[in-house]
Amino acid sequence: MIRRKRDKKGRFTSDIVSIFVKDEKKFKICTMCKKEKEISEFYWIKKKDSPTSRCKKCTDEINKKNKHKYTEYFTEYNKKHRIKNKEKNKRHYIKKKIEWIRFISTITDIKCKKCGYNKYYDALDFHHENPSTKENILSILTKLVINEKRKNQVIKELSKGYFLCANCHREEHMINKIKIKEYLKE
Fold first, then answer.
1. By C-alpha distance, which of 30, 56, 23 is closest to 42?
2. Minimal CB count within 10 Å: which of 9, 52, 57, 58?
3. pTM metric for this prediction
């Protein structure tokens, strides 16, 4: 059942275990544990449209052993990549932010409801009239790429409150805390 596969130049590439059928089920022999296993017990390579040479159990074992090597490598790689692409990432973030601001401004006025402040958007907070109805955090949603699902989530969230500048937002929460303390004293 084991056959050697040749590349275009006639060289042997690797030992390939052929897939064989037994009782209307497809089987293959794992190159590591040498056991005959069903095709479903192998990971599938989409590009090659074929199963891997090792079964899932053996592959997972190898990955678990080598995890620390990969973790260190990718941590270092990501660090270098962030430094290398810092300006590009900054431009992308600003572009996304502008897209969200334009989208939100079509739905509601982006200004403080109490004092009318609208100079700098980062100085505005979104205040929920009823905090228990908060499902999504706008600041997190607006850092993500715009798509229809997120647009609908933002529209839904915007209907639950209004924008306040940082000062008015703090005052609003202090007023609520004072009201609660007074209510508890009575």
1. 56
2. 9
3. 0.49
* pLDDT score recorded for residue 55: 92
- Reported as a pLDDT band with limits 50, 70 and 90, residue 41 is very high
What does DSSP assign to residue 19?
Answer: P
Structure tokens at 116: 């009318």
Asked if 32 and 55 count as a contact pair (C-beta separation under 8 A), the reply is: yes
Average pLDDT score over residue span 94-116: 87
Element (H, E) at 163: strand 161-165
CA pair distance 96, 186, nearest whole angstrom? 49
Radius of gyration (C-alpha) of the chain in whole angstroms: 29
| Alpha-carbon gap, residue 32 to 27, rounded angstroms | 15
